[in-house]
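Fresh eyes needed here. I'd like your take on this protein's tokenised backbone:
***
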Amino acid sequence: MEIEEYIIATDGELVELASRGDQHAFEYLFTRYREALLRLFEQRLGDKDTASDLLQETFIKVYLHLNNYSSNYTFGQWVYTIARNTLVDHLRRRADDISIDEKFRAP
């Protein structure tokens, strides 16, 4: 595929190509959703480094589970769900790192 074809391809077309091993298609999917997801993580966390880590973790999950994607949902909805779950998992892990004394300390 030529670069122009990747640019105008739909998410569904890119998913199909990426699931067959086309790395350029996956890169274009990443590029399309990177900024929106990064903003989501930064708004929730206020930490650019952690937001970047969560973005990377999200797209690793997307890549590993791309064959599980169902066209019953838009690709954006699917990716956002993975991102939201990644954020929730991160917040839970962070809460587990707080000592029991800090959790119940009076404000």
In short: The mean pLDDT is 90.
